[in-house]
Amino acid sequence: MTSVLSTRRQLEAHGHEVVVFAPEDPRRRGAHETGTVYVRAKEFRHYPGYRLAMFPGHEVDLIKDLGIDLVHIHGVGFVGIKGLWASWQAKIPESRRSHDDP
Is 38 a residue whose pLDDT tops 80? Predict the structure, then answer.
């Protein structure tokens, strides 16, 4: 999450409005960060701390309502797949960064 927050800070420093979509942590339901939308997620038993985003969700409607013009996907897994799908459904461009990119 540190790299996502660093990216957010840099984009905001350049005048961009940033909304982060992140998997909900069932153990921290009341602890929400401003500017972050938490998507429904389940704990993945075989990989402690990793949460799987659940389908379906209301992210496409939120993307349209917030007027988001680019979806940047940072990482892989179910949240990444959900981001790709939401971008496609909302008909807005997406960019990706894998863990292997510099």
Answer: yes
